[in-house]
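We modelled each protein-ligand pair independently. The example shown here corresponds to the pyridoxal-5'-phosphate entry; the chain sequence is given first, followed by the ligand as SMILES.
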Amino acid sequence: MSILYHSTRSQSDSVTSKQAILAGIAPDGGLYVSDAVGQSKLDLSRVCAGSYHDVASMVLGALLGDYTPDEVSWCVSHAYAQNFDTPEVTPVSPLGDDWLLELYHGPTCAFKDVALQMLPRLMSVARKTAGSGRNVMIVTATSGDTGKAALEGFADVEGTGVTVFYPAGKVSDIQRLQMVTQRGSNVAVCGIRGNFDDAQTEVKHIFADRELAQRLAQKNTVLSSANSINVGRLVPQVTYYFYAYARLVAAGAIAQGDAIDFCVPTGNFGDVLAGYYAKRMGLPVGRLIVASNANNVLTDFITTGTYDRRRPFIKTISPSMDILVSSNLERLLYYLSDGDCELVASYMDSLAKDGSYTVSQKILERLHQTFACGFADDDATRATIRQTWEQEHRLIDTHTAVAKTVLDCRPSEGRQRVCLSTASAYKFSADVLAALGVDTQGKGDFQCMDELSQLTSTKAPQQLSSLRDATELHLDVCDRDQMGSFVESACSRVFA
Ligand SMILES: *Cc1c(COP(=O)(O)O)cnc(C)c1O
């Protein structure tokens, strides 16, 4: 079956899913969407009988039409293997009256692994058919977490390489060690003298540098990004919504066909959008609850229909949700407007020009049919971490705690509810320890990790605790204007 993708902002050019995955973003700045999402429904009986691998294959098969069944199965079996610490990949466990969907069992202990272990395999396969065999160098700037997840995903994947820039001195000890100890023959890591925005801005310049692109093309290499707007990151996330549903049926908590709710700690809107795709594809979803931290631009949008990014950026203890422009929302607007590209383009235009837009009454009504929202500030988040530990004996991280706070404030509407847990508590040891009432002043990351372990009699994930003794392999630090040449020499070395 052929499933074609086109931009959210125009219907004119259609590409295959392989082309969309290699390109990342559409040429007009829009995001790739397919009108086929939900045209055929997944068979729930098969989903409920399947393993994680089976469900992932069904989802990828339905959304990425030009991958053959063999290619899908190769991608699934390599993306979800020993690199996850459980064969279930994303287990579900009870938490009070609700359920916790554990998305942190991958190599970096956070949910981005589920997508970033898959994307490189999808790209590796795509480059052979849709990319004329060209080598793909991923270039990314990171404020800490995404860089490591990209490094782990792309390390030693054939035909690909990955270069990560981080702001030197502005990431945590553990985040820096996670990156500079990365193994793999195709990885490059470099600190930047400057902040995250400097690194991000320069990466955009590197992508826009035509002369660099030409020199690389002569060497059969193309630059790409592993950004969360890539179709290849969105699609793998749909799997765990179906899988969680299957686990609730298996546990006898629901009968097949009953609707359930999901509460999702949200930043760029990728994770919760995957839940919406699952619903379109036939998963019985009641409500998708969008949970934000103090950067509650989405709470306001879902409540009023006006998206307004003109507000102060607040640094919180759930940094991966500190976002004022949720890029993937553009895809939801496309579907809620029945594919009105002109309307979507006009909203995005106002956002770029004025910093805000207001959706039509029809879109707002449709939004409210599925989506609910809420937010939690840092104090409420800490209180939830403490309460969850004291009452349930479960340690949850700061991002998960935002979602749980929002969920706890809502009436259940009579359905089973699943709270997505997006990181291991140990990834944010200092803030979690402080939430439990311990003074963390002047204590390093590893000391906080040890104290958290002692206090709760739980074990830090080996991926994090072993960093203490790992060898630092990537010691480069450069100025912003040297980043381009760093990428070029990384390409020469990796694809020699
Ligand atoms: C990225 C991230 C989120 C937000 O996910 P989006 O897809 O950007 O909405 C939430 N929690 C953690 C731990 C993350 O790393």
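The chain has 22 helices and 16 strands.
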